[in-house]
Amino acid sequence: MINLHYLIGLPIIIGIVLFIIPEMLKLLKGIVTVIITIITLYFSITTFQLDNELARLVCFTFPSLTKFMDFQIDYLSKLIVLFIGAFGFLFSLYSLSYHNRKNDLTNFYSYFLITLGAAFGAVLADNLIIFVTFWGVLGLTLYKLIKGNDEESSSAAKKTLIIIGASDSLLIMGIGIVWMLTGTFNISEISLSTTGALPNIAFLFLLIGALTKAGAVPFHTWVPDYVKSAPASSSAFLPASLDKLLGIYLLARIIMNMFRLTEWATLVLMIIGGITIIAAVMMALIQHNYKKLLGYHAVSQVGYMVTGLALGTPLGIAAGLFHMVNNALYKSGLFLTAGSVEKQTGENEIDRLGGLSKAMPVTFIAALVFAFSISGIPPFNGFSSKWMIYQGIIDFGKGSGIANNLWVIWLVMAVFGSALTLASFIKLIAGVYLGRQNPKLKKVKEVNFLMWFPQLIIAIICVGFGIFAANLVVPFFFERITGKFDYIGIWKSQSVTILILVSIVIGYLIYLWGNMKKHRVSDSFIGGEKIQEETEFSALEFYKTIRTYKLLSFFYDKAEKKRFDLYNIFKAIVLWFNSLFSKAHNGFLPRYIFWYIAGMLILMIVLVF
Amino acid sequence: MNSLIPLFVIIPLGSAFLMVILERFLKNICKVITPFALLSLLILTLHFILRVEDTQIYKVGGFEPVNGIPIAIYMVIDGLSKFVLLIISLVGFFSILYSLSYTNQYTSENKFYVLFSLLIAGMNGVVISGDIFNIYVFLEIAAIASYALVAFGVEKQQLEATFKYQILGGIASMIILMTIGLIYWNTGTLNIADIYTQISNQNSLFLKFVSLLFVAGFGLKAAIFPFHSWLPDAHSSAPSPISAMLSGVLIKAIGIYVVFRLFFNMFPLSHEIAMTITVLGTISMIVGVLLAIGQWDLKRLLAYHSISQMGYVIIGVGIGMLVIVTGGDKKIAALSIAGGLFHMINHSVFKGLLFLNAGAIEYRTGTRNLQRLGGLAKFMPITSSTSFIASMSISGIPPFNGFFSKVLIIVAAVRAGYNWIAFFAVFVSVITLASFTKVQKYAFHNNDGNKWLKKNIKEVPFSMSFSMIIMALLCLGLSFFIVPEVRDIFLNPAVQILVDTMEYSTKIVGM
Which helix (H) or strand (E) holds B77? Predict the structure, then answer.
């Protein structure tokens, strides 16, 4: 069990030690962090070889705590642990170069390591109280991984912590109800059916905890705000990868281990999944900030995972988990590219960027791979998991529940969402990397090795997971979690890849032989005028038509005023109560005395008489 | 007989009188005596907690009971008193360390220390008194010292606050004294243990009436809704270390502690009173936080949160009381009470620290209006990080202490079947978090803070930052109270006193 000590304890302890080292030695802190992440990566790989069991850590200082220290090692937790370890290593490398500027986020590496250890702890813990403790620490580090020296970022941090904290509090309440119903805090011993009021409330509260962490509608509103103003490495680390892994992990535990879902619970989950896919991608379409656009996609993709898991069939759950892993890969990769672009150009707004493909070739290719993956284009990994989800939904339609009968709706939502994703990524790629180069960006260069290497590795994994999905990846990682399942369609990822490669080669040959290279290049003639900047091809202009479309603009207007944001709705209600109560506290002594006497009399009347 | 017990009153009271005389000859003597007095109290308390088990009493004058009826004034130290004494001396010691630099801004510094010692003497006296009349006497010592300390800055706002505080406090004291008289009239004794044996079989209208008068009287001292109205003014106008003492300790020692002691160990448990306390606690919790979130005056915001956090303590213990009364599982009752008491010590540490932080901010920038602050994280790193820890503690974010006590309270409330109360506790916790992220944002972040460059703002002096750091470490360290081994030493003796309601009187009457 030495693995668990290293995975959970080591990063947290070193993280705390790093607080003491002054900020001047940032590079040293970074190098220590990279070394620690290499160690945890090694142990997270070796965890994969351990037997599946409920490991109990002996707590020497406080023997009575030992009975709480159960850690669940099964294929699900192994999978998540492996990817947390991998992401920890890649992002620490990236941060080494990304965070080298002066006056940057303080104590980044401390919080980074604590996050890593707490994430391992949350995934492995079997006792719900231990679990929720680690889980809560993740909310705290999320809050500290954003710079708070301007209005926007400190508001985003505040909003994030409030939403995450609220969901955690409900989670605790849910855990309390589960304890009352079953008499145990151990996930492995809990088995509840969602019938009756209390189990349903417990289910709902645990669900809110999971979905808020993962960022599903309507608890998603912290994600776009957070990623817009947080450093790219923080965004890639928590909202894009770890929070997704953990949120969906909890959802999987709820669905697979703790609760048996009734058809209504399935329906609720399917609706949340479907709405998440569509609503978030519609918002993503109209964004013109690189990071914020990615933030909305980070929400939208959660819809697929929720949909997959909600299906409840082995195929569906495997698809959902596969999509979770894929999404963590390409989404964090996309954030890394956004960070690279931001670091080299100092710019996040898509319309001020453009034509970076030549200056930053590795970043461009990585971004292209990620964009294809997220849009579900074969043979990349995003396609594989989406294809499994589609199959799962069709298969699900054979069932007899309410949600099963509506399978066409879920399928349409999923496919349509995928198309819209592609549309918005065409805008991103075209706006940032293609098109005419902005004259101000002439001097931009590729980022250094430490920054492009993680992007490249993640891109290679994305391609690899896509190509070898059906034969290697799914059987190795996912069938072991859910049990064996059959595809209802055909999916031979390798042969399809070969077909695609062949068609690309043929296309290139036609391009070479067809004399297409000798096209004529000249400036467009506009009455003798020189080309102005406004007449340039702009990726953004095209998408403005969506924004002004009548029916949609109604929703967009409301959404931009944050009318659908639960955070703002509750804020307004609470502040209304505040003003109401404040009016009563006007500082007049006679009134206070009156209250005192009146309160006493009311108590007397209620109780004595 | 344990002759160390009177020291809890003698040390602070003696040093107060000594200082009045000595300060005429030695100007800085107060700054030496008070910290040492508090330190010795802290050591004494730890001695009692770690070395002395079981209930200890001291009979003033050495009069033995006649026919089993106690006639001497009893000073009693049991699990609950030890626990509250720990709170008093812990927060008191760090507040006084902090004051060493903070009081530089006042002209008659020495009087501050004299009044501070009197405050401590009063609170210690309330906690170790074994009879209700002495509780009243010491309560008045503490209350009058606090009236003077609230007004210590002698500015308009402070005088107004202390005036309100005095009037309302006076009404409450009067009610308490009258009730004590009524009880004496009925039972012929003032000793808590003896009163219990006299009235334990009664369940009359008289008892209900007297109980409610006590709720109203001590409810004001504890700032329970609807008797809370004095608190925001008084606690926000006092000098910051005093605010820390008032919010962190005073409302507990002379309010909550007495309520618990009387309703568990003196009156026979009754469902109505348990329900009243729990309901009032729930309302205080909600009203307090809803009032707090809109405040822009930092200390006023903190003061309103004290009302709300006291609500947590009360519902924790109140639910325990309800469970005992309805004959439920004693383990659940113990869990709930442990949650409440745990939150009590947690609250005194983090709220004390938050007031010290507010004082540090005011000390350097001269304002505590959140709208005029911002960007201080860069200039006051210690204040900023300790305040962050305290804010997260009060909001119940792990791994800080507030999280664990809130988890205990919520989980126990659900287990006992009070789902709505648990839900309100969750709701209040969220709004608490919201208002403390607001504090963090507007005080320490929100802008780059370049306006402070001109004013040459820097970190506060050593004695202030030192006590803030230690209090912040305590916020982390108190989390270990959740561990059963540690809980057995510090928390469980106190819980046991409340769960086994009869033990107290049988033990004391027998001695």
Answer: strand B73-77
How many Å apart are CA B433 and CA A444, to the nearest integer? Answer: 43
* Burial group, residue B181, by CB count within 10 angstroms (0-12, 13-18, 19+): exposed
- With beta carbons under 8 A apart, name residues in chain B contacting A137: 398-399
| Secondary structure (3-state) at A72 | strand
Q: Which residues contact B112 (CB under 8 A, 6 or more apart)?
A: B30, B99, B103, B106, B149, B152, B239
Any domain includes B16? yes
The set of residues, in sequence order, having a beta carbon less than 8 Å from that of B106 and lying 6+ positions away, is: B112, B152, B153, B239
Helix (H, G, I), strand (E, B) or coil at A528: coil
In chain B, what are the helix, strand and coil shares in percent, each to the nearest 5?
Answer: 75, 5, 20
Structure tokens at A436: 């005419």
Residue pair B414/A176 in contact (Cβ under 8 Å)? The answer is yes
Is B462 part of a structural domain of the chain?
yes
Note the pLDDT tens digit of each residue in A451-487: 889 999 999 999 999 888 877 888 888 888 888 887 7
Domain region containing B427: 7-510
B225 residue type, one letter = F
- Which of B 417-476 lie inside 8 A of A, CB atoms? 417, 419, 422-423, 426, 429-431, 433-434, 437-438, 440-441, 444-449
Kindly report, residue by residue over A536-590, the tens digit of the pLDDT: 556 666 677 777 777 777 777 777 777 788 888 898 999 999 998 888 887 788 8
Residue B157 lies in a domain: yes
Report phi then psi at B57, rounded to 5: -130, 160
- Interchain contact, A604 vs B209, CB within 8 Å: yes
Please say whether the beta carbons of A33 and A135 come within 8 A: no
**Does A595 contact B419 at a Cβ distance shorter than 8 Å?**
no
The tokens describing B114, both together, are 């004299």
B287 close to A (CB below 8 A): yes
How many whole angstroms separate alpha carbon A539 and alpha carbon A435?
8
Given the cut 0.85, state whether the ipTM is greater than it: yes
pTM score, whole prediction: 0.93
Q: pLDDT tens-digit profile of A207-233?
A: 999 999 998 888 888 999 999 888 888
CA dihedral (A438, A428, A88, A138) in degrees, to 10, reads 110
Tokens coding A397: 């339609």
Query: What percent helix, strand, coil does chain A show, rounded to 5?
Result: 75, 5, 20
CB atoms within 10 A of CB A439: 8
Judge whether B360 lies within some domain: yes
3-state secondary structure of A6: helix
The count of domains in chain B is 1
Tokens coding B316 = 């924790």
